[in-house]
Design brief:
Layout lengths: L1 E6 L7 H16 L4 E6 H4 L7 H7 L7 H11 L3 E7 L7 H10 L6 E3 L5 E3 L6 E6 L4 H7 L1 H17 L3 E7 L7 H15 L1 H7 L1
Parallel strand pairs: 1-2, 1-3, 3-6, 6-7
Antiparallel strand pairs: 4-5
Helix pairs in contact: 1-8
Length: about 200
């Protein structure tokens, strides 16, 4: 089984990147034949701007842009998608949001039918969300930030495309000496991603 881990953070030495690596290690520790690909959006220079070319593709007036076709191809190779990101203003960083805006395009992630229905095309792709936030759990619960993020991201994006959310985790808070605990949790997340598949094989 093959997992794609998408990371959005400008600093390769950050806790966010360390969490992504720990998840990847957890995946490969589970079964020798499991593999992981990392997509570091910042290091790769991904352009998050929804351009005129994207708009024309959305309107079915032009083919998918070349860079987006490449992103969709590596998603097509994956049996699980993991998004690892710092929480900026109670949501994704702009770079990751732009990746979703452009990559999860009509005709690939979903299709609008002439009858006004939506065909969900990513039912084969489990998604695991891991956000790293500075505030504590009490703050998220008190203000409803966690449920708001769940509505916006888990339901609003991935349910719309049919991609089942296998897990949705907030690692909180990111400071105060919690790094080692978060890395252990991340490794455990990685070990569980293909656990059901391994049980079926056995």
């Amino acid at each position: 089984m093959h997992g794609l881990i998408v990371v959005s953070h400008p600093d390769a030495r950050s806790l966010t990147h360390a969490v992504a690596k720990a998840i990847g290690q957890g995946i490969t520790d589970t079964q020798a034949h499991h593999s992981v690909e990392f997509a570091d959006l910042d290091a790769e220079g991904f352009d998050p701007r929804f351009t005129l070319a994207d708009q024309r593709h959305f309107l079915k007036q032009a083919p998918v842009p070349v860079d987006i076709a490449a992103e969709q191809a590596r998603l097509d190779r994956a049996q699980a998608l993991v998004l690892v990101y710092p929480v900026y203003w109670w949501s994704f960083p702009a770079l990751l949001k732009g990746w979703i805006d452009r990559v999860f395009a009509q005709g690939w992630a979903y299709t609008d039918t002439p009858e006004g229905k939506v065909v969900k095309r990513l039912q084969h792709l489990p998604v695991h969300l891991v956000g790293v936030g500075g505030a504590d759990n009490g703050t998220y619960a008190r203000h409803g930030y966690a449920s708001a993020m769940n509505t916006q991201i888990d339901h609003g994006i991935f349910d719309y495309c049919g991609a089942p959310v296998g897990s949705s985790t907030l690692l909180l808070p990111s400071d105060g000496g919690n790094g080692h605990t978060h890395l252990r949790t991340a490794h455990e997340i990685g070990m569980r991603i293909f656990a059901s598949h391994a049980a079926k094989v056995m």
